[in-house]
Fold this protein.
Amino acid sequence: MDQRTTTRRTSAKQTTWGGLALAVLIVLYSFVRPVLNERMGWQLPAVAGNNAVVADSEPAKATKSSPSKTPADQKPLAPGPLGGKVSKPTPTPTPTVASSKSTMPSAPAKPVSAEPSKPASKPPVQTADPNLLHGLLKDLGDDRYASPAGLMFTRGSAEGHRLDHLERHTEDDPSRPGKHGVFDGGMEGALKTIDRAYERAKTGSRTTKELDQGRTIHTVDMGGRVGYIGGRDGNRQKKPMARRVRLVLDQNRVITAYPL
């Protein structure tokens, strides 16, 4: 055979195989096209009788099944990435949570009656009585006077009476040599302080006790100011504060008393 005959046969074989492949593709396309059009919503062209691909003369008919009713609250479908329609998810309504607080008005709180606190018990305060000497001393007659604590003030001393001697310790005497104890509060203050010192001395509270020729000498720490130290020495020291009481007794009779 010559070269031309060989070439013609080779071309004929290639044409035959190409035609068969094209026919197979057309047959497969004919079966796949309706399925793709229905599922994907596409409009692929149909195959004509002369094996040419042409567009459909009319759109694909809808299936006989009645369309499902779209709920009123469902939003319209949006086109999908391949031409289909994808429904947007309907938002789930958030359940309403009941408030934990009660809406009922709360009853007004009852007012708490504030009871006044009771003051701490204090020792009775001696009050001045206008019917008593210096507001405190009871006249027993014969120039004898009794204090509320039971001390007796009688005649005696260079001044003539123990009360007259005590009165000297209610005012300062800057010219007196040495120290001179002065009570705060005049005669009434002096008598109250002496009574308090006597009560402490009987219990031995902050008290030193001495005996001198039948007389008892009590030195009582009163825990606070009861007067000051005067006289020459006291004035040179600018009248320092006195916190103690020197009480000299003959049984319950007052001989003398003054601040230290």
Remarks:
- The longest strand covers residues 215-221.
